[in-house]
Design goal:
The chain has about 450 residues and is α+β, with helices and mostly antiparallel strands. The protein is built from nine helices and six strands. A hairpin with a 3-residue loop joins β5 and β6. The longest helix has about 70 residues.
């Protein structure tokens, strides 16, 4: 018997060691990160992959799924037998005391439990554990949909930050071009002034214009730094090495049908799925509350070796118990009422999510259409502003124009270029927002790509 108890203890220790090793391995895998190589040229898809592997919000959501998966196991464990090992020693004193508190007898002896094994098994609780398992499974599904929602939001944040950084790069290029042009204006103004064809004011005006452009270039550099920080935050990396972006701001026409998009959203949006599953879990909570007064049928068996100073005896036991809870009918009624009220609340919240999806897609659709219409107009305006600047620059170069006319033409051309890149940025962000609202990537129009 002692040998059997020793083997059982060793087996329990091995199980605990194996469980600890599995946990350590899982923890080790969870901290693996996707790094960024120095001077890497990152595409948007690469940035999204980095975010999905590093953003702490996603890791927290993954841990949440593990929590609810563990809760399923906790509920299932109630169906498993419970094995216990025991051993012990006690000193028993059965002395009797007289009125004057003096001992008149001493029958003290040692009591031993050399070892014991007991097994307890739940035979039936009339559906309570099964219902609890189903509820835990529902919440595990909810946690997985919440993970998808978190991923969708992170993907959108990365896309938005990526497009913003691209926009700041283009804005800087425009300002650099302006600095270059104002340097040329200054050189021409100085040359005209030296030969006496232009007054000193033209030189001073060109110098002021150049200084202002250089100030704007400093602001452009600052905007880039801020945009990089926002992209790093979206990816979940605090201090990566320097990198550049490979993709460019461009217009790719997307196919879009409002009614079809709405139906897809109702079918695929994980937040709406979560709300629906929550209402199903609430129904099961109502059923579980109604089963509180159901009894539990349990079985038990054990074997032990016990003794005292005089003898040691082995023994075993086998039994069944039928436990009927003494319940308060009023308390159970209120628990059922609470579960029903929770169901009604979550039912309305699911409907709220459904309505919010409609309005979210409607707003995203309006922004999508508006940003799409701006692009051809911005193209035309850019062409016209370029022609106007070329005329003003040509007139000034031959001595017919004046610096104010040239500055106005250059400023208009620069602003129109910035507006054009802003239109491309807004369109791509609108597409990303619409895809997040729908829960699906919009297909491209092959006729226009």
């Amino acid at each position: 018997m002692r040998k059997l108890i020793k083997q059982l203890v060793i087996l329990a220790l091995l199980i605990n060691i194996a469980a600890g090793a599995a946990f350590a391995e899982e923890k080790k895998v969870s901290v693996i990160k996707s790094g960024i190589e120095k001077n890497a040229n990152l595409t948007m898809s690469r940035c999204i992959d980095i975010a999905l592997n590093n953003n702490p919000a996603i890791k927290a959501a993954i841990s949440n799924t593990h929590i609810y998966n563990s809760k399923i196991g906790i509920e299932k464990s109630k169906h498993f037998p419970k094995l216990s090992l025991s051993t012990g020693f006690s000193r028993v004193n059965s002395s009797l005391a007289g009125p004057n508190r003096r001992f008149i007898n001493d029958d003290s002896f040692n009591s031993y439990e050399l070892g014991g094994v007991s097994v307890n098994q739940l035979i039936s609780d009339f559906g309570k554990t099964g219902t609890a398992i189903d509820i835990s499974k529902d919440y595990h599904k909810i946690s997985k949909h919440q993970l998808k929602t978190t991923k969708n939001n992170i993907v959108f944040d990365v896309k938005r930050a990526y497009y913003q950084l691209l926009l700041t790069y283009h804005n800087k290029k425009v300002i650099i071009e302006s600095v270059k042009l104002y340097k040329q204006h200054l050189e021409r103004a100085e040359a005209f002034y030296k030969v006496g064809t232009r007054p000193k004011i033209d030189v001073l005006t060109a110098e002021v214009n150049l200084s202002n452009a250089r100030l704007q270039l400093i602001q452009a550099d600052n905007d880039i730094d801020v945009a990089i920080a926002n992209l790093n935050r979206a990816m979940g990396i605090a201090a990566p090495p320097e990198y550049t972006l490979k993709d460019q701001l461009e217009y790719k026409e997307k196919q879009y049908n409002f009614d079809e998009a709405l139906n897809i959203a109702y079918e695929k949006r994980p937040d709406y799925k979560s709300a629906v599953i929550k209402t199903n879990a609430d129904k099961k909570y109502i059923s579980l509350a109604n089963k509180i007064y159901f009894p539990d049928l349990k079985g038990s068996a054990g074997y032990s070796v016990q003794g005292n100073n005089s003898n040691i005896d082995p023994g075993w036991n086998l039994g069944f118990s039928f436990q009927i809870p003494l319940f308060n009918a009023y308390s159970i009624k209120k628990q059922v009422d609470e579960a029903k009220a929770e169901y009604q609340k979550d039912l309305m919240e699911a409907e709220t999510v459904r309505q919010n999806i409609y309005y979210e897609i409607k707003e995203a659709h309006v922004n999508f259409i508006e940003s799409q219409r701006r692009i051809p107009v911005a193209k035309v305006a850019l062409k016209q502003a370029k022609e106007s600047y070329d005329l003003a620059s040509g007139r000034y170069n031959v001595g017919e124009g004046d610096p104010i006319e040239l500055k106005d033409a250059e400023l208009t051309y620069r602003n129109v270029k910035l507006q054009y890149y802003r239109a491309l940025h807004d369109y791509n962000v609108a597409v990303a927002a619409l895809e997040r609202a729908i829960g699906k990537i919009l297909p491209e129009n092959n006729e226009n790509t």
